[in-house]
Specification:
- By secondary structure, this protein is an alpha/beta fold.
- Helix content is 53%, strand content 14%.
- The strands form two sheets. A seven-stranded mixed beta sheet has the order 3-2-1-4-5-6-7, sandwiched between helices. A two-stranded antiparallel sheet has the order 8-9.
- Strand 1, helix 3 and strand 2 form a beta-alpha-beta unit.
- The protein is flat.
- The N and C termini lie far apart (105 Å).
Length: 314
């Protein structure tokens, strides 16, 4: 009985659909209203399409113009930038430490060299520096002689050892161990006289960013400040997690757009003796330092680490 009723209902539905189709077909043959409405709709769609084509053409022309202007501005910056920074940092000895996830390119080194600075070394702390691998954590703890159960304590100890190697250079065995484990990559020489250190932070990984900044960047800043070395906290314009607020707790100069010519000019000006928080983010005090304000920086040849630098308005 259930199957028979099911088939009857299905047949009735089919015949109803056929009947509705016949009625619609008859109406289309005898009534032009639907056809006229379709024509009006088609004409309107055609007009809208033509309008969109015109707007798209205008947008493409505007984009091409803006791209041309952007290219001209970029060329202008390339020509003017060396003039703005030339010899502003003559004799200034600086090291670069990359603690973040974005790295740095040769543009920054080129800018510093054109400004007359001496880059004694560049250091890159790998993502493995946080010791997420338990086995690596045990190996590092055993080598350094620290509690193997405290990941934070081990990372802080590594950070202190990197600072010591950078500034004093009397723990080369530890530095070699860290480089052999691919936790640290160094270009240049440690243990050289230094006036300043540029830290490049910013994270791509929100889940580990706070751990990194609290156990790497901030201990690094503290250790360098104890040595009397100027510190410049920097990061790229676009980062998933910004370190600027953390850096600014230590009253150091910060630049949040170091990947741009504006940020690079701000860095050179800050190193020249115009401290502040510069860049494009909400944490910045202003875009650029006051380049019209004269400063006097004294760099003493052969100075001890952290010494021989002073900056004051003239």
């Amino acid at each position: 009985m259930f199957d028979l009723r099911y088939h009857i209902v299905s047949l009735v539905a089919v015949f109803l659909a056929l009947g509705i189709g016949i009625l619609i077909g008859s109406a289309m043959e005898t009534d032009n209203t639907l056809i006229q409405q379709q024509k009006v709709l088609t004409d309107r769609l055609a007009a809208d399409l033509e309008k969109l084509r015109g707007e798209n053409k205008e947008a493409m022309e505007k984009l091409a113009k803006e791209q041309k202007e952007s290219a001209q501005q970029e060329e202008f910056v390339k020509e003017v930038l060396p003039v703005l920074i030339k010899n502003r940092l003559t004799g200034y000895r600086v090291a670069i430490i990359d603690t973040g996830d974005y790295g740095f390119n040769d543009d920054l080194l080129d800018i510093l060299k054109k400004a007359g600075a001496v880059v004694t070394s560049t250091s890159v702390l790998s993502r493995d520096f946080v010791l997420a691998d338990p086995q690596l954590q045990k190996e590092v703890a055993a080598f350094l002689g620290v509690d193997p159960n405290s990941q934070a304590a081990i990372v802080k100890e590594m950070t202190w050892q990197v600072t010591r190697g950078l500034v004093v250079g009397d723990n080369l065995a530890v530095i070699k161990f860290l480089t052999d484990k691919k936790l640290l990559k160094i270009t240049g020489a440690y243990g050289q006289p230094l006036q300043g250190v540029i830290i490049i932070g910013g994270s791509q990984q929100p889940q580990t960013a706070q751990f990194r900044v609290e156990n790497i960047d901030l201990p690094l800043i503290e250790a360098l400040q104890q040595k009397g070395i100027e510190i410049f906290g920097t990061e790229y314009s676009r980062v998933a997690v910004s370190y600027m607020k953390n850096y600014q707790r230590y009253k150091i100069s910060t630049i949040d757009n170091i990947d741009t010519p504006m940020g690079q000019v701000a860095l050179v000006a800050a190193m020249e003796g115009r401290p502040g928080d510069y860049g494009i983010k909400a944490t910045a005090g202003r875009l650029l330092p006051d380049l019209n304000r004269e400063v006097k920086r004294i760099v003493l040849p052969g100075s001890v680490p952290g010494a021989g630098v002073s900056a004051s308005p003239q």
